[in-house]
Structures are given as C-alpha cells and as structure tokens.
Amino acid sequence: MTAGGVVLLVFAVLAVVVAIVLLFQGVRTVPQGWEWTIEKFGQYTRVLRPGLNFMFPIVERVGAKINMQESVLDIPQQQVITKDNAIVSVDAVAFYQVIDARAAAYEVRNLVQAITNLALTNIRNVMGSLALDDVLSKRNEINDRLLSVIDHATNAWGIKVLRVELKDIIPPQDMVQAMARQMKAERDKRAQILEAEGVREAQIKRAEGEKQAAILSAEGRREAAFRDAEGRERAAEAEAKATQVVTAAIGSGGAQAINYFLGQKYVEALHAMGSSSNSKVFFLPIEATGIMGTLGGLAELTKESQLRGAAASAVTAATALPPSAPPGGAPAPSGPWNRG
After folding, report:
1. Which of 17, 264, 307, 321 is 20 to 30 A from residue 41's alpha carbon, by CA?
2. Which portions of the chain have biased composition (kind: Pro residues) (predicted)?
3. Is 69-171 a CATH 3.30.479.30 domain?
4. Secondary structure (3-state) at 190
5. Which tens digits make up the pLDDT trace of 246-258?
6. What is the pLDDT of residues 231-243, one digit of tens each?
7. Residue range(s) occupied by CATH 3.30.479.30 in the chain
8. What are phi and psi of 326, to 5 degrees?
C-alpha cells in the first residue's frame, strides 16, 4: 500500500469515528416530566419533548432543562404589620407548574427566586390591608387574594400558580394572652347563658308539672265533692222515705208506732257510743226504768206484730184453698168459715 493510500485510510477511519461520536452526541433522551430547550448558535430554536430526540452537534446545544411537573415552593417566614398596627409572623407555601418551557427559561432569570419575592411582597400588601381579627379569621379569603395576584403576575413567566396557602400566623405573645383571656371570657359567657337557659327550662317544666298537679287535684276535689253531695242527696232521700214510712205508721199505729221508732233510735245511739274507741264512761239517764219499760213495750209490740202477721198468713192460706164436700153428700155451708 502506498503512502497516499495509508493517509486516505487514516482519514477515513477518523471520519467514521467522528461521525459515530457526533451521532451519539446528537441523540438526546428527555425524561418524562421534563422539557429541554435547544439553542442554535446561542439562539432559542425549539423544545425537546420527553422521549428520544435528535439534535445537530456543534451547531445546536441544550439551553435549559425545565421541570414541567407541579412543584412546591416554601415561602420563608416574615413579619407583617396589619392595618391596626399589629405585628404578626407569617409563612406560606405555594404550588406552581411550568406550562411554557421557553418562557420559564428566557423570560425570567431565576424562576424560583422570582416567585418567592413576588409572594413575600403580596403577602405584606394583602395582610397590611386587613385588621388583626380579619387576618386571623379570614385565612381562606387571604389565600384566594394571594393566588389571584401571584398567578396574574407570573403569567408572563410561563407558569401557572395552583395554590397559595398560609401555614402559620403568629401574633405577638401579649396579644396571644389577651386573645386567650377574651376566649375564656366568651366561653364563660356562653356557659352562663346555657346554665341560665337550663334553669329557666327546669322552672318552666316544674311550673307546668305543678299546674297539672293542681288541675288534677282540683278535678279530684270536685269529683269528691260531687260524690259527697250525691251521697248526701241519696241519704236525704232515704231519710225522707223513712220519715214517710214512720209518718204512715204513726198514722195507723198511734202511740205504739211512736214508741217503737224512738226505741229503735235510742238503741242505735247506745250502740254507736259503745263501739267508739274514745268512749270510756257511759252515763245513763235517771229515767232508766222508763227506758227499760219502753224497751219491754217494744218487745211486746214486736211479739204482737208477729202474732198478727201469723194470723194474716193463715187467713190468706184458708181463702186460697177450694171448699170440700162434707160427709154424706151434704153441701158445704156458704161463707169463709164453717163454725159447725
């Protein structure tokens, strides 16, 4: 092989090696969730998407590697003066996502630092326009206002701010103690109100119970009075009937009926006195002999009444029997009695 052939062979081998090296340098694999910007002679030309990509070595190069996933930015703590001149310490967290790799790479020099400073500034502005009570109670409203302002300001940077959340709002220690006393007073007030309402409800229930008891008691007394009056009425009717019977007896029997009635009442009175548990000594009237005679007369009167009753029964029975024929076929004499 001549010297010229050797030189050509060497150049051919070098060309192949350079071609292989350039080929490997021109092949780029972009991972999922990332986008790479390509610059040609220092000027942005295009974006490489996730997967296998080709570029021209020496002429093109990778400019910036942009993470397209949602990212979390921790905003450092700072002291903020509220509208009523209260100093509070505030820190927050922001969630954002790059939606335009070119803008994120070339519209802002340091994307993370820019978002952080923008968030710090807007936190001071928003919370400085609110009083301390509003800062402590309207956290969601503050988050919404911060999200709206920061998202609008970062549109030119090719990012989308998804959420802005306040993590801690720490007021001064003396204010914390004052708020604790206020909360305690408020809880004591609510407890007293609830206790008073409970006492009132209990009194109302007790009054309603007493009212129902009084109504039932009055109805019971009314029913008892009605029953008592009805009993007295029946007793009066019975007494009137007894008086009528006695009056009729007096009209037909004369003095014996009067003595019988008085003797019966006297015996009932003595029986009532004897059955009483408080009766210890009994005083009989001086006319004890007369009383005994009256009682004896009552016995005779009772016996006479029994004899009269028996005779009347016999007469009634004889009248009810049919007349029988005498011996020998002679007809029986007419009349109720046969005095033969």
Report:
1. 17
2. 323-334
3. yes
4. helix
5. 666 656 655 555 6
6. 888 887 877 777 7
7. 69-171
8. -70, 170
